[in-house]
């Protein structure tokens, strides 16, 4: 992956370990990620009539997770067989979807935090807010994030003797210093530091509002729910995406030969796949936001489950009566 530093140490054993790591992690993620996000999308779209409380953003977050989860079987096939027979276009698409999921998830977590904070501090804004506003914002997010993720494809080369290679085995293109620095700054500022500041500010404002209302003995359940929502968004954001973005800056410096020390470059390259696996866990953690923090989600899921159970019991009773 990094031709300048591959002469430092022999990474053959670690390359095999990476394949096993990706295989096991993606296998663990696939089933629960598919089931939880499919159920979440179904409930959010069909049974929640209230379009406030960031429901539209949650739907888009679920779609982002599902798109990535559905590409995991192809990734698992590649890391088991060490061969990609599906063509260059599908390889680039799956490679692209990983980063699209990551950064779309980050932006929608930011949108959820901002909306919950804004509606809590300005209740009248929530009353006048329209669902189409969230739809327009979500569309803009997909377009902007989609364009911003395109450099991850352009950074990879699939030529020469690597036509059956994909993902981590695609060689990295060498960029000039100005382009490399620009990409690093943009990815870190727009993809991590900026969202972290925004989510942190939302948390601070909600905590401050909660403290003021406690002093006035006017604290409401909505305030505490909004605080839990933003805190969980912050927790998912930090746990899943902080390791990758901390290492990404150093990893890009290694691939562009800015860092040439063998010990440092090896440690950075070793941690890179681990950070990507941690980032992929957001597909399983995001549904927790919907279930544990959205009252409507739990109510509709419970009501639907109860109605299905009652229908089956009535069907069994009618069948047994008919037989008697």
Automatic annotation (TrEMBL):
The chain crosses the membrane at residues 21-44, 56-80, 100-121, 133-154, 180-207, 228-250, 270-293. Residues 36-290 form the G-protein coupled receptors family 1 profile domain. GO terms for biological process: phospholipase C-activating G protein-coupled receptor signaling pathway; positive regulation of Rho protein signal transduction. Keywords: G-protein coupled receptor, Glycoprotein, Membrane, Receptor, Transducer, Transmembrane, Transmembrane helix. GO terms for molecular function: G protein-coupled receptor activity. Its main location: membrane. One of its GO terms (cellular component) is plasma membrane. PANTHER family: G-PROTEIN COUPLED RECEPTOR, PURINERGIC RECEPTOR P2Y, G-PROTEIN COUPLED 10B. InterPro entries: GPCR_Rhodpsn, GPCR_Rhodpsn_7TM. Pfam families: 7tm_1. It is found in: Membrane. It is a multi-pass membrane protein. Signal peptide: none annotated. This is G-protein coupled receptors family 1 profile domain-containing protein. It comes from Cirrhinus molitorella (mud carp). It comes from the Eukaryota.
């Amino acid at each position: 992956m990094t031709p300048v530093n591959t002469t430092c140490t022999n990474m053959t054993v670690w390359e095999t370990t990476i394949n096993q790591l990706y295989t096991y992690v993606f296998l663990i993620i696939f089933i629960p990620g598919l089931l939880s996000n499919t159920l979440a999308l179904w409930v959010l779209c069909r049974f929640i009539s209230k379009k406030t409380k960031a429901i539209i953003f949650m739907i888009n977050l679920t779609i982002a997770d599902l798109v990535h989860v559905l590409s995991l079987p192809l990734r698992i096939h590649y890391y088991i067989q060490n061969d990609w027979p599906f063509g260059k276009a599908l390889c680039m698409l799956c490679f692209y979807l990983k980063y699209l999921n990551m950064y779309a998830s980050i932006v929608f977590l930011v949108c959820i935090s901002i909306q919950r904070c804004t509606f809590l501090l300005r209740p009248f804004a929530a009353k006048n807010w329209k669902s189409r506003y969230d739809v327009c914002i979500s569309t803009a997010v997909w377009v902007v994030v989609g364009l911003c993720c395109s450099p991850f494809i352009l950074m990879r080369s699939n030529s020469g003797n690597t036509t059956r290679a994909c993902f981590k085995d695609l060689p990295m293109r060498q960029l000039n210093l100005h382009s490399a620095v620009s990409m690093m700054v943009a990815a870190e500022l727009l993809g991590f530091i900026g969202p972290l500041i925004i989510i942190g500010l939302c948390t601070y404002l909600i905590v401050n509002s909660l403290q003021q209302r406690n002093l006035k003995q006017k604290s409401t359940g909505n305030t505490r729910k909004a605080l839990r929502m933003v805190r969980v968004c912050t927790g998912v954001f930090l746990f899943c995406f902080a390791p990758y973005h901390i290492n990404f800056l150093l990893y890009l410096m290694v691939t562009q030969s800015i860092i040439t020390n063998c010990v440092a470059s090896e440690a950075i390259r070793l941690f890179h796949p681990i950070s990507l696996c941690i980032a992929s866990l957001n597909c399983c953690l995001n549904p927790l936001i919907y279930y544990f923090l959205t009252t409507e989600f739990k109510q509709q899921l419970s009501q639907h489950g109860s109605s299905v159970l009652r229908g089956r019991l009535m069907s069994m009773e009618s069948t047994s009566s008919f037989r008697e």
